[in-house]
Design a protein that fits this description.
Largest sheet: 5 strands, parallel
Number of domains: 1
Oligomer: single chain
Number of helices: 9
CATH class: Alpha Beta
Helix content: 55-70%
Number of strands: 5
Distance between the termini: 8 Å
Shape: globular
Bound molecules: adenosine monophosphate
Order of helices and strands: EHEHHHEHEHHHEH
Structural class: alpha/beta
Mean pLDDT: 95
Radius of gyration: 16 Å
CATH superfamily: P-loop containing nucleotide triphosphate hydrolases
Amino acid sequence: MYNIILFGAPGSGKGTQSQMIVEKYGLKHLSTGDVLRAEIATGSELGKQIDALISEGNLVPDDMIFGVIEKYIAQLPKHCKGTIFDGYPRTLPQAVALTGLLKKYNMKATMIDLMVDEQLLIQRLIERGKVSGRADDNLNTIRHRIAVYHDQTEPIAHYYLRQGNYFAVNGNYSMEDVFMQICRIVERESKKS
Ligand code: AMP
């Protein structure tokens, strides 16, 4: 099994690249953002609490996310080729929890960081907002989400770097170019696992 943590700021292309990786390598895709939006769509009390946090561009508390990941990993079919974690982990406790869970099943994950200039991130998210209908794709919330990323999420790259499990790609290029960079890493690193 080969697991990838697709890392990067909002608008760095994690969702798009995840789809391309799924098609080429047959990995499963877990987007915690999608799981949370699905909970919101049920109209539940929990969904309402999550909606308030996401709409403001804040992270959902770690405890709410832990259960999602735990359940996902426990239910992975034996024949699964691996997972792309998209939008998880986003905090250091989430990263530590993921390492522990993967270890339990004798697995690990490689972090691939999509590095994109801030102006381009904002431009992409504004464009996406015109069609996504996402409440968090507006300029004020976008700026806040990027600040939250720098403050709470970006530092965990060091956690993976220290483990020799971190690879950066230049995400400013076209999606095909970025995908080629990712494929080179996947093909090299998956041979080692
Ligand atoms: P995304 O679809 O990955 O852009 O996530 C949208 C929003 O969902 C984020 O801005 C957070 O509010 C929330 N979210 C998604 N994944 C996580 C996570 N791992 N931890 C905390 N909040 C999350």
